[in-house]
Task: inverse folding
DNA sequence: TCTTGACCTCAAGTCGACTTGAAGTAGGAC
DNA sequence: GTCCTACTTCAAGTCGACTTGAGGTCAAGA
């Protein structure tokens, strides 16, 4: 009776049941059986969902995440991939830091228009050169 | 002759021309005229595109970004909104920082499986509780 | 002058990650 | 035994941000 009903998993993991079915269809999670029609899950699914959530936050697609699990279901993540993702994330963080500072400055700046503020323009130039440099990358979910 | 052809803008800003047309349709940028059929842009559009790009990186939708420009085209952003966005961004940054550190650790951790690493499990727990607590938010584009 | 190729418009398609709707079913309360 | 409700399946819809395709135009080079 340690098994969890889909509703229980949904509640504990903070995702709708439809998402759990969707993840199952994609092979990201598996139910351990049914009670009547209802899916029952091993409590370990919560950990797995947390892993999926962390991966999503880090910017992995569901397909990428799926490939991070060994056939036996154990997470077997390539450490090189992790390190690369950490680096990428670090670049994003620095970029967002610049942006945050720009926003803060613009909020406090007394210039009548932000475009007349040298600090703001400098930040924009920095953002522009970074944008021009890099190829377009995929999304990273916040929160 | 300081005006820029759409191809030039696309190249310099690092976005395809189709995106520029799309942004124009959405009212995010404006062309200053045409040479034959071809859009010509004021060099200032590059700055504006940088602003748009920065906003996208920060997770703002194009509609949100559009609302940050006054009808005259000058960025005239409500300073309170800016300050609030800066705060939000700051929270995101801190979250991503934790995630980055976790990734770095997992990459370096000697445990045979990440699931046997207490730090990794701690990260998962943290991620899980955050996920369970908060509503789902929108995406933030990296790079 | 003629060709070429990069641009043009407009509608429709794509992609990821889900969500929603219709129609059906079973376990538990009464 | 019957009813309610939360689940079930499967297909289709949604949303944001673009991209693609078909059919057309025009400035510049051969």
Result:
């Amino acid at each position: 009776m340690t098994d969890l009903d889909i509703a229980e998993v949904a509640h504990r993991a903070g995702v709708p049941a439809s998402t759990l079915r969707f993840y199952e269809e994609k092979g990201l999670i598996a139910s351990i059986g049914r009670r009547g029609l209802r899916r029952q899950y091993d409590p370990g699914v919560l950990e797995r969902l947390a892993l999926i959530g962390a991966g999503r936050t880090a910017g992995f697609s569901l397909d990428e995440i799926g490939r991070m699990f060994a056939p036996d279901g154990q997470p077997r993540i390539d450490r090189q991939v992790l390190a690369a993702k950490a680096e990428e994330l670090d670049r994003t963080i620095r970029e967002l830091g610049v942006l945050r500072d720009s926003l803060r400055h613009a909020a406090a700046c007394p210039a009548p228009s932000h475009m007349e503020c040298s600090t703001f323009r400098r930040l924009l130039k920095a953002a522009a050169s970074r944008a021009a440099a890099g190829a377009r990358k995929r999304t990273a979910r916040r929160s």
